[in-house]
Design goal:
Blueprint lengths: L6 H4 L4 H15 L7 H13 L3 H14 L2 H10 L6 H16 L16 H4 L8 E7 L4 E8 L8 E8 L3 E8 L3 H15 L4 E3 L1 H13 L11 H8 L10 H8 L10 H10 L6 H4 L4 H14 L7 H19 L2 H20 L4 H16 L7 H15 L4 H20 E3 L5 E3 H4 L1
Antiparallel strand pairs: 1-2, 1-5, 2-3, 3-4, 6-7
Helix pairs in contact: 2-4, 3-5, 4-5, 4-6, 9-10, 11-16, 12-18, 14-15, 15-18, 16-17
Length: 428
Amino acid sequence: MSKKKKPADLLKISENEKAELSFFMDRLRMQDPQGPSLENCLRSLKQSLLQREALAAALLEALSHEGGPVCFRAFCALQEIVQDKRLTRIVRQAAYRFRQKGFVVCEASAPVQDSSPVVLVKAQEMKNEAYLAASAKDHMFQYSAYVFSKSEDSPCVILMTLGAGFSCELLGIYSLSRREFKDKLRKIADFLESPIREVSLGHMARVHETLVSFNRIPAEYRTDVPMVRRLLEPYVLEDPRPYFLQMWDQKGLAPLREVDLPDLVDFITSNLEVVPYEGLFSDKSALERWVTGLKTIQDGVIRIPRYLAEERLDKSLGEATRELFPLEVCRGLAKDWEEVALWTLLNEDDPFRVEKVFALSEHAQDLKDSGSSPVMRRIVELAMAIFFNFFTPDLNADLRRLEKMEKELDEGLKRTPSGLYVPRGVLE
């Protein structure tokens, strides 16, 4: 009794048939999924493969391995040729591969419409979307978008990485299936130890345009700028307000409160991670030069009246801040803080912290002179303390005051959900 042939055995085609198969695949690779010649090509293929089920099954299998809109269109048009029950398993496996790539597989008996969007475009690919993963403590933000455009044969994946101080660390366009895109998202999230949050494509478009206008995109990534702009242009936000404020309203939160400058100074003094010091001061030579100058004034051999020393320290600190934080750097830091505020809001963290971070963003955005800003001056003072262990009198005084305040709060007060500090006994 002869053994029943397996599907793989039935696909053992001759050398001439292999050459035909290669020719068929080459013809399909040259087709435009929206082109007028594709229908004629499929009709011709179907005519050539009638009564040649083994070769048709081999072609269907090859199409499923290659993937793409044209291959899927051909699969839908040719699958009904294979009627041999021993070969239908191969067709089912090919259909499964297309489903894994995100295509909605049509039934063999269903007619293929000439311009059906279900056939030409993966159904899931019609959902254009953007996601954000971040390491806010490192001031790193990874935007990932999956965008379908009529001008492209297949969906495009846009990856955009922001670094400290609103710098562009990566900008690229990739051709990935939706499954590959989701895998990429998971790997990014694992690397950043971050959740994944969906965001507006319009916000991603705005971030990209801001990077371009700030000239923050490195030369090696600028060739992708026109295509990224073209892909994201349909999603530009009509609301001119920062996306953070739009999300704040969507969440139905109470109006943002104004934060006084002294409170902002205390906030950054007590929360060092809010400022990306390593990124802002990667070259510490200028900072060191100013530390040396301030030390000379503060610890000079020639004794001068205290008020004169304080005036000179204040003037030098202002000059140092102007040099270290020109307005273009302040604008970048403002956008960095806007991203931190957005990320904190998306994760529904402490709203009081969110308000202060966004207030920092607005302050830096509106600056006309960084040297007169108590916030920017405090950042310089903290950088001097962090990198060179140099403490100005003002920083020393504030650190002692904040330490005493924190101790008193730990001992006798507790903050209510509304933000007020009350004696613990009232709540207990």
